[in-house]
TrEMBL record:
Any GO molecular function: DNA-binding transcription factor activity
Alphabetized InterPro entries for the sequence: Homeodomain-like_sf, HTH_RpiR, RpiR-like, RpiR-like_SIS, SIS_dom, SIS_dom_sf, WH-like_DNA-bd_sf
Keyword DNA-binding part of the UniProt annotation: yes
Database matches in Pfam families: HTH_6 (PF01418), SIS (PF01380)
Organism field: Paenibacillus graminis
Record keywords: DNA-binding, Transcription, Transcription regulation
PANTHER family assigned: GLUCOKINASE, MURR_RPIR FAMILY TRANSCRIPTIONAL REGULATOR
GO biological process, one term: carbohydrate derivative metabolic process
Name the record gives this protein: RpiR family transcriptional regulator
SUPFAM superfamilies referenced in this protein's UniProt entry, alphabetically: Homeodomain-like, SIS domain
């Protein structure tokens, strides 16, 4: 997984709850003293964080890095870029201008963090799986259901058979008879939505190619999926305002995946988009009855 410039400190903050206790010791030290950490050896960091060299290495891998040298490079990039925008929660009696500023900051930071952990190779693999798939299924609950519908709308424009059923029983019946090579995309920002997890297991058992679409970090859902798409993990807030930050990040990943898919055969993609646009424009010109 590639490392974006200037995003590693935010990633460490957000993934902290998913780390083991020994890894959290390393994480806290890095967050408190990034300038020192950038110049240390593995052994020095283990000593200063009251952990072990093995914990330092595991910590690096848990936050999506290949090893300790990559952590030092990422810290250097973070410190060179300066202070990040940050995440902010809403407070009592705030005026609308302050709310606008906070939501804008949250969205910008979420997108920056998502780009920072974006795995381009994984995007390309998923795009090719979707390109070859005879049928695509997408499922999520709540805000994630909106993401599933966005996937369905985009790939319908590309001429794919794609479904985002809300009824889990109808979706299960459809997947049970899906042709070989079909793809199931399970969307859960928390990676803990029971229905998504159960559908992922069923899709695997039914021979579908599976894609998990979650917040960053290892989970049971990502472990059982063929491919993983990750967005940034924003800190928990008292007022989540319909999961605004996570939703923007998820839509951003869908857009990246959509354009990666379209680029596989750009002439065919343009032709399909043109035809669907023409069809919808004709509906707008229907005479009133």
């Amino acid at each position: 997984m590639g490392v974006g410039v200037g995003q590693i400190l935010s990633r460490i903050e957000n993934v902290m709850p998913k780390l083991t206790q020994s890894e959290q010791k390393v994480a806290r030290f890095v967050l408190e003293s990034p300038e020192e950490a950038m110049l240390m050896s593995v052994q020095e960091m283990a000593s200063r964080s009251l952990s072990s060299s093995a914990s330092v290495v595991r910590f690096c891998r848990s936050i999506g890095l290949k090893g300790f040298p990559e952590l030092k490079v990422a810290l250097s990039a973070d410190l060179a870029q300066g202070q990040k925008s940050g995440y902010f929660d809403l407070n009592k009696n705030e005026n609308t201008a302050e709310i606008v500023d906070k939501i804008l900051s949250n969205v910008i930071q979420s997108l920056k963090d998502t780009v920072g952990q974006l795995d381009v190779e994984m995007i390309e693999k998923v795009a090719h799986s979707l390109y070859m798939a005879p049928v695509i299924f997408a499922y999520g609950i709540g805000a994630s259901a909106l993401v599933a519908e966005d996937i369905a709308q985009k790939w319908l424009r590309m001429g794919k058979n794609v479904y985002a059923f809300h009824d889990i029983h109808v979706l299960t019946m459809s997947m049970a008879n899906a042709p070989k090579g079909s793809v199931f995309i399970g969307i859960s920002y928390s990676a803990a939505t029971r229905e998504v997890l159960e559908l992922m297991k069923f899709a695997q058992k039914s021979g579908l190619t599976t894609v998990s679409f979650t917040g960053f970090g290892r989970s049971e859902l990502s472990d059982i999926s063929d491919f993983n798409l990750f967005t940034s993990l924003a800190p928990e807030a008292k007022v989540r305002s319909a999961a605004t930050s996570s939703k923007h990040s998820q839509f951003f990943i869908v857009d990246v995946l959509y354009y990666a898919y379209a680029s596989i055969n750009i002439n065919d993609s343009i032709d399909k988009i043109t035809r669907t646009r023409k069809a919808t424009n004709e509906l707008k010109n229907l005479p009133e009855t």
